[in-house]
Design a protein that fits this description.
The chain is built from 12 helices and 12 strands. The chain folds into 2 domains: 115 residues, NAD(P)-binding Rossmann-like Domain (Rossmann fold, 3-Layer(aba) Sandwich); 182 residues, NAD(P)-binding Rossmann-like Domain (Rossmann fold, 3-Layer(aba) Sandwich). It has a 7-stranded parallel sheet, sandwiched between helices. 36% of the residues lie in helices and 15% in strands. It is α/β, with parallel strands linked by helices. The longest helix has 19 residues. The relative contact order is 0.15. The radius of gyration is 21 Å and the shape is globular. The protein binds (2R)-2,3-dihydroxypropanoic acid. The site of (2R)-2,3-dihydroxypropanoic acid has 7 residues, from loops.
Length: 321
């Protein structure tokens, strides 16, 4: 019997490719820049499995280009807003993602952004790099301490909870909003109080976005929500850009409706809303949430294991449900 054809649509760590090779004929894109769509569609024609990155759009055209023999699309990411899951389901294609393995790395980045924006570290670094003369001053770049401040977490899944653990170690108290409450044990461990979104926005010193992106969470945080937030509060987004209305965010940062923002993700990634780049009270990093050597290897390996499971007739380890 012919070995299955497995296409890896973006460059992934060797650990993932090594886990795939014994199970099929593997072709993988070897470059950091994304594969052109024409080449992608040519490569996936007749594939049994495709591993995708969050920059690979899996829609009707993709599924048509692959053909009806396609069994599995394994996203090397926990977020899957790049995949038309309903369309996959209708065609009998299993879609999978990589939850769990990037929880700690992403929570680290959220905590790092909280520290960077509240302590004005980006501004400080820019002063040094500008090569302008500077000297220590009592009032230079005064920031906001975290101790005793409230962190409001929007989306209390695994990453939200991992962030809450970090924040409590920094002396913060935790409130959260989520479709369903976390268990009483977790609430007790984190001292976390569940609030509705409006109350959370109005009472938090730092608001972090940690929920998945969907039509329900599109622009969940926009002009109205910034109005509710304290003028001394900060917003941090490490989830998906379009959960925040970025034009409204620029306005809120400019007008002083909120004190600052730390962003790892952007509404029109990799493009930025005009003006965002010029704001000193915004800390901007390029979607680095899961960017550690260990985490990226674990993501690639889990995606490979999902692929192999489906190709061998087993249930996927982490299907998108
Ligand atoms: C994911 O896996 O969804 C992350 O955004 C990657 O960093």
């Amino acid at each position: 019997m012919a070995l299955p054809r497995i296409i890896v649509a973006g460059r992934i760590p060797d650990a993932g490719l090594d886990a795939l090779r014994p199970h099929g004929n593997v072709w993988g894109w070897k470059h950091d820049n994304p594969i052109e769509i024409d080449e992608l569609y040519e490569r996936i024609d007749g594939a049994d499995a495709v591993l995708t990155l969050l920059t690979t759009k899996v829609d009707r055209s993709f599924l048509d280009a692959a053909g009806s023999q396609l069994k599995v699309v394994s996203n090397v990411a926990v977020g899957y807003n790049n995949i038309d899951v309903a369309e996959c389901r209708q065609r009998g294609v299993i879609a999978t993602n990589t939850p769990g393995v990037l929880t700690e790395a992403t929570a680290d980045i959220a905590m790092a952004l909280i520290l960077m924006v509240t302590r004005r570290l980006g501004e400080g670094e820019r002063i040094i790099r500008s090569k302008q003369p500077w000297q220590w001053g009592m009032f230079m770049l005064l920031g906001t301490g975290l101790q005793g401040r409230r962190l409001g977490i929007v989306g209390m899944g695994a990453i939200g909870q991992a962030l809450a653990r970090r924040a409590t170690a920094f002396g913060m108290t935790v409130a959260y909003t989520n479709r369903s409450a976390v268990t009483p044990e977790i609430e007790a461990e984190l001292g976390a109080e569940r609030l509705d979104l409006d109350e959370l926005l109005a009472t938090s010193d730092v608001v972090t976005v940690n929920c998945p992106y969907s039509s329900e969470t599109h622009h969940l945080i926009g002009a109205e929500q910034f109005e509710l937030m304290r003028s001394t509060a900060f917003l941090v987004n490490t989830a998906r850009g379009p959960i925040v209305d970025e034009a409204a965010l620029v306005e809120a940062l400019r007008s002083g409706a909120i004190a600052g923002a730390g962003l790892d993700v952007y509404e029109h990634e990799p493009m930025l809303e005009p003006g965002l780049n010029d704001l000193d009270n915004a800390v901007l990093i390029p979607h680095l949430g899961s960017a550690t050597v260990e985490t990226r290897a674990a993501m690639a390996t889990l995606a490979a294991r999902n692929t192999v499971a489906v190709l061998s007739g087993q249930p996927a380890l982490t299907p998108i449900t």
